[in-house]
Model the fold of this input.
Amino acid sequence: MSTRAFSLFDTPLGRCAIAWGTHGIVGVQLPEARELATRARMLQQFPEAREESPPFEVKRAIDGIVSLLHGDKNDLSGVVLDMEGVPPFYRRVYEVARAILPGATLSYGDIAARLGAPGSARAVGQALGRNPFALVVPCHRVLAAGAKVGGFSANGGIATKLRLLSIEGTHAHDHDARALFEGDGGFGFDPESAVEHLSSRDPELARLMETVGPFRMRLDKTSSVFVALAEAIVYQQLTAKAASTIFARVRALFPRAHEGPTPEQVLRVKEEKLRGAGLSRSKLLSLRDLAQKAKAGQIPTLAEIHGMENEAIIERLTEVRGIGRWTVEMLLMFRLGRPDVLPADDYGLRKGFAVAFKKRNLPARQDLAKRGARWKPYRTVASWYLWRAVELAKK
Done:
């Protein structure tokens, strides 16, 4: 595969990237959280490529992608792909996927059947999980059994897949934002694909993962972003048992206590009652500030947050008194199920890294982030395994 160059271009999703060689397009990259990360991802995949202006045929492919993301029914069938080096089975999967028109979907099983290999649905999923031609090979139009959304390996995970489907006017059974984020056991990615990806990218991490066993992380239910952050404020610097008792007392102050308070209720209740529930003065001020910002529309709802990038969520929520980056990262991981979060300032994570990689000292933030680059787009899963390394060391 002779890759000559790549270029970044603007779309309604953000800055995408495209790489090409002498025989056609060799890669299309959906936006990472930042343009710098998108460029770095392209150079990681195609280290010999130079960034330059696209020639006519590539420009035409870019125009087609932009048109598709504006909601036009463009199937991108005219885009020439260079599949040299792509395994034969993957090529066949991609050819079937390219035949799915905007607004339509197939399941992994459907594609397997069309290939004449009805028992290969998992292999189809693996091929699509490694699809280098995002959008041109529309893997977002392939759903799990029962029209459930299934996994998606691009930045933003299932939220990005839902957004693409929504642009094309497609509705899967679990498009409802509340169902996605209430922690019904589902993630915004396929855990099995994530484990396989990490094992192939980092042999040392793979040994830890084999020792720990299956990925068993679970999401915590929440009725709203506001309630999740209110609970996070209460839990800061307390044992889980003490924090759970205090938060139960806070919820008991309001009707429908099991759902948690609303911003309006928190702003109306007297300070003495909140203090009486066990809140410190500092946490009371943080809770009031959160309620004021939520009432003013500064805190995104569950429906709004699923279309936001991780860094945008962190930037927005850390404006609340008492909410720092680590707190939002925990929300992203354990409430929203985001696949690519690496809380590099977390002591337990750094300790787990030192244990797993046999380091005498805790890694600096930049060292952990550098190693973590090879774990993208599943740094959440890698983080979970690193925390388990600490538990193993204690045993």
